[in-house]
Design brief:
By secondary structure, this protein is α/β, with parallel strands linked by helices. 32% of the residues lie in helices and 21% in strands. It folds into 3 domains: 2-157 and 203-303, no CATH class; 161-200, no CATH class; 317-471, no CATH class. Helix 3 (112-121) crosses helix 12, helix 4 packs antiparallel against helix 10 and helix 6 packs across helix 9 (251-257).
């Protein structure tokens, strides 16, 4: 089993266990190279689908969140070296495992930032989980996803379907099973073998969820995940009570009964939950099975994850900011009067005052900059290099919303900040209808311990909220 550990957004990814040497084809054995060629330079939309149900891609795969990442690539080969984009997570190809960690991960491999964003977005209580470096990152990611999608599914009610039950008693409620009756009740002892078809909560789908819950309990982080909040506790209890016939020895049979995805229109959220459960329960089989050319894993679009993470911060601070989501059609803006087509800035505020109306654009990318320090307040400022497409997009949103401010929110390394604080770029004044564009660099902590990282990141979030509140005229 070969394992590679690489970071996002690198043109020439460097190998961790051999210093700063580039990870080139000649440094990879033939079997690993052959496995990587199954996914290298291929668009994600061509890699996933019904033929590869064990490759989960967020946000697109589960059909709920915004941006379509199907055009992206997991990894690419250029000039004999591996390069990556915004995709993070874990992917396995036959005997090769690839961990794509965030570029803000510590040099010793601790990827606190990716775990932190996942736990924020999927509402896991950080302090109830003892964070440890796992040798199986895919399992950690699936743990973060499970309670979120369990709660979403239960909001549609407990999955209910018709199921055939077999009985052998004197209270006959269905057709008699003659062959079974002869086999079990001769000589006659006062009972009759029969079967019924009942509309019940105890079925193969809820049993699959119950098996997943019991399996998660055996993981070191399991109890923390399943007890992260009261809603999760209630959801776990509901599934436990709905599956009285649960038997741990039936796990393989239940898995086989769930290989066909749930397609009930009323219980649509159970499709995603079913996938997560199968991934968790079949993880070992996926890794060591004999299936040829298997591709499996959990991948996240860093741009989507960064935007959702910022949305959580703004929502928690109760800022008067609108979060637009293109795929769900929420909070879009039209460019034309009576126009039907909507466009979706990441975050915006629109009111009758142009001075307090603004657009916030989340960018999980490297932005070139010329850093300077303002001698008056000792706060770092810089001039950021904004791409042509991003620039035109922001100017368009500013014009339609009659906003005088637009800012890019992007993550930066701690060394790019002065004393770990927020970095503001030098405002760029627009001609015509005026207005200004500025960048807000958000430093990502690099503390040695996860608890210290959490505290540092919370402090950065508070500073970001304070900057935006001041911009809004609230302070």
């Amino acid at each position: 089993m070969s394992r590679l550990r690489i970071t996002d957004n690198h043109e020439a990814v460097e190998i961790n266990h051999e210093g700063d040497k580039r990870y080139c084809h000649d440094a990879i054995d033939d079997n690993t190279r052959k496995d990587l060629q199954r996914i290298a330079n291929a668009q994600i939309k061509d890699l996933k689908g019904d033929k590869r149900p064990n490759l989960l891609v967020f946000p697109r795969d589960l059909g709920y969140y915004g941006d379509d990442v199907g055009e992206g690539r997991i990894i690419s080969f250029h000039d004999d070296c591996i390069s990556t984009g915004n995709i993070m997570g874990f992917v396995g190809v036959n005997d090769t495992q690839v961990d794509i960690i965030s570029r803000f991960a510590k040099t010793d491999g601790e990827d606190y930032f990716l775990h932190y964003m996942l736990q924020r977005v999927f509402a896991i209580n950080l302090f109830d989980i003892k964070h440890t470096t796992s040798s199986q990152p895919i399992f950690d990611f699936l743990l973060y996803l499970f309670p979120y999608f369990l709660k979403k599914a239960l909001r549609q009610g407990i999955y209910k379907k018709y199921r055939r039950f077999e009985y052998n008693d004197s209270n006959i409620r269905g057709p008699i099973d003659v062959s079974r009756h002869i086999r079990e009740n001769i000589p006659f002892r006062g009972t009759v073998a029969y079967s019924t078809r009942e509309h019940t909560y105890d079925n193969e789908v809820t049993e699959l969820i119950r098996h997943t819950i019991e399996y998660i309990k055996t993981h070191p982080m399991g109890n923390g995940v399943l007890n992260c909040d009261q809603e999760t506790k209630d959801a776990v209890m509901t599934m436990t009570q709905a599956t009285p016939t649960y038997n741990t020895r039936d796990r393989n049979r239940i898995i086989n009964l769930n290989l066909r995805p749930v397609t009930h229109p009323y219980y649509s959220e159970y499709t995603a939950l079913q996938k997560i459960c199968l991934q968790i329960l079949r993880h070992e089989a996926l890794k060591y099975g004999q299936e040829k050319d298997k591709i499996y894993g959990v991948l996240f679009d860093g741009a989507w994850l960064w935007e959702e993470y910022l949305g959580i911060i703004f929502s928690k601070a109760r800022l008067d900011i609108t979060h637009a989501k293109n795929k769900t059609g929420e909070n879009g803006i039209a460019l034309y009067e009576n126009g039907r087509r909507c466009y979706y800035p990441d975050f915006y505020r629109s009111n009758n005052c142009a001075e307090t109306s603004f657009v916030l654009d989340a960018k999980y990318k490297r932005l070139g900059s010329d850093v300077k320090v303002d001698s008056q307040d000792d706060e770092k400022t810089n001039t950021i290099a904004i791409g042509r497409e991003d620039l035109f997009q922001m100017i368009t949103y500013m014009h339609v919303l009659a906003a005088q401010h637009c800012s890019l929110l992007y993550p930066i390394e701690p060394y790019e900040s002065n004393s770990g604080g927020i970095v503001l770029s030098t405002p760029r004044k627009l001609l015509g209808y005026c207005g200004e564009i500025i960048g807000i660099g958000i430093p990502i902590a690099n503390d040695a311990e996860y608890s210290a990282f959490y505290s540092s990141q919370e402090g950065t979030e508070s500073a970001l909220v304070a900057k935006i509140q001041k911009w809004m005229g609230n302070q």
